[in-house]
Amino acid sequence: MPSDAGPTPPAQLTALPDTARPRLGPHLRKRFDRARGKHVLLGPESVIVLNGTAADVVALCDGSRTVADIVAELRTRYAYPVEDEVRGFLARMAARRHVTVEEAS
Amino acid sequence: MDRPFGLLAELTYRCPLACAYCSNPLELARYDDELPTADWQRVFTEAAEMGVLQCHLSGGEPLLRRDLVDLVRAAADLGMYTNLVTSAIGLSRPRAEALKAAGLDHVQISVQADEPATSDRIAGIPSFERKLKAAAVVKDLGWPLTVNVVLHRQNIDRIAEIVDLVEELEADRVELANTQYYGWAWRNRAALLPSREQLARAEDVVRDARARLAGRMEIVHVLPDYYSDYPKPCMGGWAARQIVVTPNGDALPCLAAHTLPLPAPSVRTESLEAIWDGSPLFTAFRGTGWMRDPCRTCDRREIDFGGCRCQAFQLTGDAARTDPVCHLSPDHGLVTEAVERANAAARPRDELLIPRPHRG
């Protein structure tokens, strides 16, 4: 729509450290979209269709698991190497503030 | 065919404000016969069934609809993410609490300037202080808050102060969106289009603010397409992601599409799905098959989709031409002329604006 905000320039992507504990942003909601047969993440002015492992990653972003925990968990669920995909997705989510990160402890 | 992600429900064009850059149509009286509550609820149901995930309740001023709480509840109960796009005039604490209880997810408040004199002059009524109070209520009730500031020649030099104000309001997001020239803004284009120098200064301010506020506030900066080499990917493609319903029930692929010489289908007589799939207004520019050169053979045709159909029609009289904003458009001179006029040394920064009329 003309009045809609244009694209935000990509924030700098920094991989989250293994010890970070990502938590889904407080204003985001994950639900299953029957029309598309996929999980989606809804937030202010954003719709993210969660493909592949993304829905699983989001489900594990509970603020208690570390990045290393999430990677380890998903390794057991998938037959192919998911690590880069998971880390990349988390970095993008953090850059857009869709996950907040509790500092390592 | 793709299903729309978002429904922009323009519930009313009545508005207490009179901003001269309003995107509402010039012929406001044509939209006085507003859809009743039950029709909106049916539209929301149809939208949700066809895959719409976000419902933007906008206007005019949506708070002027007495049934707003019921409409929010209907959209929220269908699982849609609900967003109220408001001037905040009429957002009292009791009303806000009722909207919260009904399931409203997010509030976007417009701010016209960083201080009351300019703000109230642009808005046409004393409204600045009321906006600040309402923003505080939004935060207090735990909503995410977006502040939307339409930037133009007459307020862009205050962008640093505007960002400071938004920071004080503890907004989660701010949209610093240069005016796009549709509706009333089109009529006021000469008085609104900023100069190159103004834009360059604003970009510096935004860069600094982004660095300072990283992690605290998301800053969306929308540059005026008149100054870019390529057009904006308007609506993410014609009839691809969004559907608009106007107060009287017209369905549009874009909120400016009422200007095109194609009849608007109505949700009063057709289902949203039938409109989306088959209405000529929706199918006319979907995909890339309608394109001519230079778009037809351009590498960017799936990136910007030929730009804005409404802007092409507005500037050239032919909606199927390349958006003249594109430097490859044979009509690009229409844009550069306007830009050069905006940069003429003698051009004042406070020309008279024609306000859109208040309608309450």
Topology readout:
The complex is a heterodimer of chains A (105) and B (360).
Chain A: E1 21-24, E2 29-33, E3 38-43, E4 46-50, H1 54-60, H2 67-77, H3 83-95, E5 99-102
Antiparallel strand pairs in A: 1-5, 2-3, 3-4
Chain B: E1 6-10, H1 37-49, E2 54-58, H2 68-77, E3 81-86, H3 93-102, E4 106-110, H4 116-123, H5 128-140, E5 145-151, H6 159-168, E6 173-178, H7 183-187, H8 189-192, H9 196-213, E7 218-222, E8 242-245, E9 251-252, H10 272-278, H11 280-283, H12 309-316, H13 333-342
Parallel strand pairs in B: 1-2, 1-8, 2-3, 3-4, 4-5, 5-6, 6-7
Antiparallel strand pairs in B: 8-9
Q: Which features would summarize this protein structure in a list?
A:
heterodimer; A: 105 residues; alpha+beta; three-stranded antiparallel β-sheet; two-stranded antiparallel sheet; 3 helices; 5 strands; 30% helix; B: 360 residues; alpha/beta; nine-stranded mixed β-sheet; globular
Write up what this structure looks like.
Chain A has 105 residues and is an alpha+beta fold. Helices cover 30% and strands 23% of the residues of chain A. Chain A contains 3 helices and 5 strands. In chain A, the strands form 2 sheets. Chain A has a 3-stranded antiparallel sheet, with helices on one face. Chain A has a two-stranded antiparallel ribbon with strand order 1-5. In chain A, strand 2 and strand 3 form a beta hairpin. In chain A, helix 2 crosses helix 3 (83-95). Chain A is globular, with a radius of gyration of 14 Å. The relative contact order of chain A is 0.26. The model of chain A is unreliable at 1-10 (pLDDT under 50). Chain B is built from 13 helices and 9 strands. Chain B has a 9-stranded mixed sheet. The two termini of chain B are 40 Å apart. With 360 residues, chain B is α/β, with parallel strands linked by helices. The mean pLDDT of chain B is 96. In chain B, helix 1 (37-49) links the parallel strand 1 (6-10) and strand 2. Chain B is globular, with a radius of gyration of 20 Å. Chain A binds chain B through residues 1-6, 8, 11, 26-27, 29, 31, 33, 35-36, 40, 42-45, 47, 96-97, and chain B through 3, 5-6, 8, 23, 49-51, 53-54, 79, 81, 83, 105-106, 108, 144, 146, 172-173, 175, 177, 180, 182, 214-215, 218-223, 232, 234-235, 242, 244, 254-256, 308, 310.
